[in-house]
Amino acid sequence: MADILVIGGGAAGMMAAIAAASEGACVTLLERNEKLGRKIYITGKGRCNCTNDCSIDDFLREVPRNPRFLYSALTAFTPQDMMSFLEDAHCPVVIQRGHRVFPATEKASDVTRALERCLREKGVRVCLNSRVRSLTAEDGRVTGAILTDGKALRADAVIIATGGLSYPGTGSTGDGYRLAQEAGHTIVPARASLSALETKETWPIELQGLALKNVRLTLKRGKKSLYDNLGEMLFTHFGISGPLVLEMSCHLPETLEGLDLRLDLKPGLTPEQLDARLQRDLQENQRRQLHSILPGLLPSSFARIFPELAQVSPEKLCGQMTKAERERLGHALKSLPLSISRLRPVDEAIVTRGGISVKEIDPRTMQSKLLAGLYFAGEVIDVDAHTGGFNLHIAFSTGRLAGQSAARASLEMT
Question: Would you tell me the crossing angle of helices 271-284 and 323-334 to the nearest 10 degrees?
Fold first, then answer.
């Protein structure tokens, strides 16, 4: 019988262990924490957005980097397969806005419990509080692992599913990067993805807590468009966040210099339509000061500071507004500039961008191209996606493929 070690008891690791055991392998799952699935508990704000009920092509469009690498994993284990897996594991699911899939109870703990039940049913040996110090290898093939307590474990295959660097309190502190690097793999530098952003401007801080719906963010570098979408954003004590900002962060280049970020507060109106609206409002309120009519266009807290952003006096009588001042108002409403100073720290990000280079992993099996018998799954790989259940499904699908592949290859050898 083949012996397989799975390092990491998160979504990818648990699925890898279940898949390998289903193929008839003897599987040991090593988790450094005192319980499994700690990051699953906080996904989807504790509700666990476990996948997205979409087609493979639509799924890949939600993956900014290295999407084609995932084709085999997604084809072998589709979002619909994941939904069936949970249903069969006595965890009914529901589909909500944006095709997002949640457990029917909207409790992440139910997903973890379903996976734990499958581990028990498949006879997987789970070792908690077990952290791996290093891998062992002979003649170009992995032979096992050594724990931090010095205990050596032999194996025919090892699957690394240790996560990235986001939410280090869940155990994601880069162990997998270190193990892979020691095995000769290239590590694409890790950074935050699905991250809030700090701004050079201080005015967003004055609007802390204000959420804007149905606004547009556009990001360019020179003439090249990097991002353009509608959605919801949030002002914070350091800058900007919210779904639209988190998604945009996936598309930021390595260097932030020379970026042109613009906020369209009235995306439903053309510049001409907005100018006609401003002319009408100013005409109907000639004796009122500008600041008194802006709450008709913007939330009150934003209206209070907006004249300064548009370089127009808030005390100016509407009847005395010049064409140039009106045009400055309209331009600021349609194209308000923001400057990104940096992403928030990676340990605050939802997922990690970077990781083990996909060039050194066989996408058909998730096996290392450098060391036979070594496999990878989940966030430890240099692949990340937008919000909506995509990242968690990447963990499940790559975990399943790695587990199946490792078991089948190992069983053929024995």
Answer: 130
